[in-house]
């Protein structure tokens, strides 16, 4: 990930509603959520949701697809992973760090092990 992409992603997440939206989409996993469910879950109006989704989409933090008359939004896990890799690049000055584990979309049983 390049610096300008990381800045755009961090800027998109640096707002309460957008961070809540992104976290809800991460929790929903790759299947995502319809816009109406996101609006209900976060407690914001559809017009506000549309504004925030535009910002998250522009930063490539979310993707959307149409299913019938619904727009389904999903977290862009590739961008999320890229951002985390960018932020931790050369962690600990190149010395071995505590092992990390990718928890994206693991079941509760997997996460406990």
Description of the molecule:
Helices cover 54% and strands 12% of the residues. It is elongated, with a radius of gyration of 15 Å. The model has no long low-confidence stretch (mean pLDDT 87). By secondary structure, it is α+β, with helices and mostly antiparallel strands. A three-stranded antiparallel sheet has the order 1-3-2.
Brief summary of the model shown:
The chain has 113 residues and is α+β, with helices and mostly antiparallel strands.
- Pairing-aware structural class of the strands and helices? alpha+beta
Shape label: elongated
Percent of sequence in beta strands: 5-15%
Task: Provide the residue-averaged pLDDT.
Answer: 87
Rg computed from alpha carbons, rounded to a whole number of angstroms: 15 Å
Task: Characterize the largest beta sheet: strand count, sense, and whether it forms a barrel.
Answer: 3 strands, antiparallel
Q: How do the strands line up in the largest sheet?
A: 1-3-2
Element order: H for helix, E for strand: HHEHHEEHH
Helix content: 40-55%
Poorly predicted runs of 5 or more residues:
none
Tally of DSSP helical segments: 6
């Amino acid at each position: 990930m390049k610096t300008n992409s990381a800045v755009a992603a961090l800027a998109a997440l640096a707002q309460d509603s957008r961070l809540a939206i992104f976290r809800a989409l991460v929790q929903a996993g790759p299947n995502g959520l319809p816009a109406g469910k996101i609006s209900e879950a976060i407690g914001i109006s559809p017009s506000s949701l549309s504004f925030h989704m535009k910002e998250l989409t522009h930063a490539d933090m979310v993707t959307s697809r149409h299913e019938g008359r619904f727009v389904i939004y999903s977290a862009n896990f590739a961008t999320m992973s890229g951002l985390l890799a960018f932020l931790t690049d050369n962690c600990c000055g190149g010395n071995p760090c505590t092992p990390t584990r990718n928890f994206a979309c693991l079941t509760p049983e997997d996460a406990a092990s």
